[in-house]
Hints:
The complex is a heterodimer of chains A (223) and B (225).
Chain A: H1 2-8, H2 11-51, H3 55-70, H4 73-83, H5 93-119, H6 122-130, H7 135-150, H8 152-165, H9 177-188, H10 192-222
Chain B: H1 2-10, H2 13-52, H3 57-72, H4 75-85, H5 95-121, H6 124-132, H7 137-166, H8 179-190, H9 194-220
Amino acid sequence: MEQILQVFFNAAILERAWPFLMRGVTMTLLLSLVVVPIGLASGLAVAMLYHLHRKWLSRFLIAYVDFFRAFPPLVLLLFIYGGLPFLGIDLPLFGTVALAFLLNTSSYYGEIFRAGLESVPAGQAEAARSTGLSRGQTMLWVILPQATRNVLPDLISNTLEVIKLTTLASVIGFTELLNNARNAQALTYNATPIVAAALIYLVLLWPLVRLVSRLEHKSIAVR
Amino acid sequence: MELQRLAFSFFNGDVASRYWPDIVHGMWVTTYLAAAIVATGLAAGLALAMARSFHFRPASFLIVVFADAFRALPPLVVIIVLFFAFPYVDLAMSAFSATWLALSLVLAAFAEEIFWAGILSVPKGQTEAARSTGMSRLQTLVYVILPQAVRLTIAPLTNRMIAVTKGTALGSVVAVHEIIYYASSGASEAGNPTPLTLGAAAYVVLFLPVVMFSRWIETRFAWKR
């Protein structure tokens, strides 16, 4: 017991590592604040293009979505990280991470928004158009609000996954929470920093998990 | 010229012929690891959901805590804690075991929630009717509730299984010898990204059929709205 406290919950070491961990939390939040909106916007774009129902465009988009759903995000990140320099492109670390997330999350969010758009009955668009709204207005004011509401649990659940995925950035040396925790662990030769990081993730993400659970159970109750 | 350089970097025949046996070996490890994770994760998730359906409060509470924790924790964090933190208390495990255990726990947490949602979706009258015919609680669960519940869980379970088994790539961080481990060490050894191209292709070969299958499953067993 004594030993467990000493290596997992060592107060002295936690005190030393704390500022370092907090800087990591800031970077994790910052990264999430960039990649989630990018994912939502690009996913929405994918879904709206699909919704145009042009045969070849739709086929292409399905291939795009399936391709990036089959690709583990870490592989995508390492491929971009290792491959771009050979194309003569030098992206900063943040840009590399953002590009990998754009490709990965646009396909997941795209698939969710597509299901949302399809869940809105065609009569809604017809009615809106017959009142004189343009196509764009119909999409913006009539279809999108209903579509988003219908897939809200999935959107939030995917956002949780995306935030969890930011830990992958640590693999290429981006100094977010997990990366800082691992460095602190290596420097102090003590497991406290990684245990602390795990607990920080738990505290930060648990409310989101509860929210997802509530929404999912609600949608089952409605059924 | 540009194109030639591109081909030399990413589709280099020489480099590819040197590294493809490694990648193929990695594919076996990935497949094996993924199969082990799916088997343990699904079995544990189903067992937990069944245990929860007996409505014994302390047990249900613990199950919810478990499911919440492993849905909140990023899988890479779980792997790293198991692999790097546990050796300090003499609980060292191999990289393979750590990855297997971590991802099985994550899949079990998600599977429990999905099975539980499925069980909840079966009308209460089904349980009452089964019990009144003299079936035990367990018999009711196994013969009446689960067969109806499982149908609803197939689509979300398939998606979750794909997401978690793709996580086997995370094992490379603790040096499990799976595809991306060979691909990235090969790329830095050769000073050429062709092994990464091979690795990427290997993942597409393994997972694209599964993703396409899941698309079919989704339409076949769609949650009825």
